[in-house]
Amino acid sequence: MRTNESSLVTLLSDLQIVLIGGAGGVGKTTTSAALGVALATQTTKKVLVLTIDPAKRLASTLGVDELTHLPQEVEIPGARGTLFAAMVDMKASWDEMVVRYSPDGETVRKIVSNPIYESISTRFVQSHDYIAIEALYEFYERGDYDVIVVDTPPSRNAIDFLDAPKNMEEFFASKLLRWLTIPRKSKLVASAFRPFYLVAERILGSAFVEDISEFFFDFQQLYEGFVARARLVTALVSSDKAGFVVVTIPEEIPTTEAIYFISEVTRRNFNLSAVVMNRSLPESIFSRASDELADRLSDESQDVLVKTLDVIGFTSSEKEVEIASMSQLASRVLIEMANSYEGLKNQKVMEEIQISRLPLDDSIVYTSTQQDRDVASIESLIKLALNMSPYR
Ligand SMILES: Nc1ncnc2c1ncn2[C@@H]1O[C@H](COP(=O)(O)OP(=O)(O)O)[C@@H](O)[C@H]1O
Ligand SMILES: [Mg+2]
Questions:
Q1: Which residue minimizes the CA distance to atom 5 of ligand 1?
Q2: 57 alpha carbon, closest ligand
Q3: Mean pLDDT of 108-134
Q4: Fewer Cβ close by (within 10 Å): the C or N end of the chain?
Q5: Residue nearest (by alpha carbon) to ligand 1 atom 8
Q6: Position 360 in a domain
Q7: 98 contact partners, CB below 8 Å, separation of at least 6
Q8: How many domains does the chain have?
Q9: In this structure, is residue 339 part of a structural domain?
Q10: Rounded to an integer, what distance in angstroms lies between the CA atom of residue 89 and that of residue 110?
Q11: Which atom of ligand 1 is closest in space to residue 30's alpha carbon?
């Protein structure tokens, strides 16, 4: 397999953590998997692709039954290294975290059995980013893999992912949390805010307000462990062991999002390792040779038609009638093809425009080609991985 100086795999070779970011639907999950495949085929590394996206599709693309938080080996024909894939399980990660940071078993039991816990651990969307980073840290710390490729969650805003540890830390120190825990902490203070809690209880029900208060009171006991960990995670993500790969497609809006993401990555002094322009059109179809071929096809269509009719056994007069009607059809088809060809050319121009908008050195821009169908098998991932190449 190809490993040249400028390949994306070479560019990422010093990293232990590769974080994939970008707008929704641009191909983050696909690119994460393709990069995993590329690393496992072109190096001897043990690679883990960690996804948060619970898309069933990825499992079937990788040829595994189901993705769980237990890494499963992915069979890649001819690979020099090994590839594993896992999916972050929100609920299991929350449980692990509560156990890890609770001062004692009693606190664990109280938190986990609180009815609020269920909603928090499954529906508290903002926490998903944090959990993803936590799970990453878990795998990193265990040291079983040479490199972990992280497919970032389909969050409302990719930046939340970068700030997840800080946001969690802030949440612990927030006024909101203090307010929520007042009734549990002090009857006296709570009575001072009685009108507020009366309204809250009337709207939410007193049992609910009590559960919330109880929950966050217990939850606060995790603070120290949580915050210490959040700082370690931030330090890891900011270190030179980790790098971001931003994915985009040749369109205005996703590229605007990518540009924003890039500026946020650099503003935080994180490593920006590469930008992947996914769904790129291959250069080759716009070569002079293809232009000439297109011309020739349209010029020689009459000849082709005549030869075909000869083979079918038409007489000269029949042929003339047939050629007259078919050449009309043929020219319509050719005009359509020419239009599509022009359309593709415009698309390629659009791609150039979007790449030129990126506020960085072209040397870290890579293209990943548009496939003629969805990337849905290990073969198609290998193909995609092989075709990732430097833009310049
Ligand atoms: N280069 C490509 N060529 C063809 N289809 C692609 C390509 N990249 C991604 N896709 C398809 O686009 C869809 C969205 O990709 P996905 O990786 O799930 O995006 P994201 O994770 O960013 O939401 C999937 O159906 C995937 O197979
Ligand atoms: Mg995805």
A1: 374
A2: 1
A3: 81
A4: C
A5: 27
A6: no
A7: 108, 111, 112, 222
A8: 1
A9: yes
A10: 22
A11: 17
Cα dihedral across residues 56, 59, 64, 69: positive or negative:
negative
Q: Return phi, psi of residue 151, to 5°.
A: -85, 115
| Sign of the alpha-carbon torsion through 82, 90, 230, 111 | negative
| Ligand 1-lining residues (CB < 6 angstroms) | 24-30, 53, 154, 278-279, 368, 370-371, 374-375, 384
Q: Relative to the CA of 151, which ligand 1 atom is closest?
A: 21
Interval 86-112: pLDDT, tens: 998 888 888 988 999 999 999 999 999
Supply the pLDDT for residue 276: 97
Assess contact for 7 and 139: CB atoms under 8 A: no
- Residue to mutate (ligand 1; options 30, 37, 49, 52; most atoms within 8 A of CB): 30
> Cα of 56 to ligand 1 centre, how many Å?
13
Give distance in angstroms: CA of 310 to centre of ligand 2.
54
CA of 297 to the centre of ligand 1 (A): 33
Q: What share of the chain is helix, strand, coil (3-state, %, to 5)?
A: 65, 10, 25
* Its pTM surpasses 0.90: no
Does 340 fall in a domain?
yes
Number of CB atoms found within 10 A of residue 160's CB: 17
Contact between 272 and 264 (Cβ < 8 Å): no
Residue pair 261/359 in contact (Cβ under 8 Å)? The answer is no
Q: Which of 236, 246, 233 is nearest to 272 (CA)?
A: 246
Print the domain residue range for 299.
285-348
In-domain check, residue 227: no
pLDDT of res. 4: 59
